[in-house]
Specification:
Elements: H1 11-20, E1 22-25, E2 29-35, E3 43-46, H2 56-72, E4 81-87, H3 96-107
Helix pairs in contact: 2-3
Length: 110
């Protein structure tokens, strides 16, 4: 499940969010947010590093699971925000309900 390109930030915006963004943490996930033009739809991306999850199959599975939660709960995001999600490898073993609960709790803090 891919997010349409219009819902994803570009490289420049990702670098800006990493540098200046607000960081929120939970037990198994980190989230970076950056305010953008208030008229824009919320921009989302999921980043899983090679150091966090070595195998590409597992990295992609983790990204797919997180994106599924984001698509299902997109209404929780306010317009004018870019969100970068950094899930940890521990979420691979978690149930979908646990994953959803953790991401929703982070999104509600934005």
């Amino acid at each position: 499940l891919m997010l349409p390109r219009s819902f994803r930030p570009n490289r420049q915006l990702i670098k800006e969010a990493l540098r200046r963004g607000l960081t929120l943490n939970s037990a198994h996930c980190r989230l970076k947010t950056l305010k953008i033009a208030p008229t824009k739809t919320p921009l989302l991306t999921v980043i899983v590093s090679n150091q966090e999850v070595r195998r590409a199959v597992q990295r992609n599975r983790l990204k797919r699971r997180v994106r599924a939660v984001l698509v299902k709960n997109r209404r929780l995001l306010k317009p004018g925000v870019a969100v970068l999600i950094f899930p940890q490898a521990k979420l691979l073993a978690a149930s979908f309900a646990k994953l959803e609960e953790e991401i929703i709790s982070l999104l509600s803090q934005i």
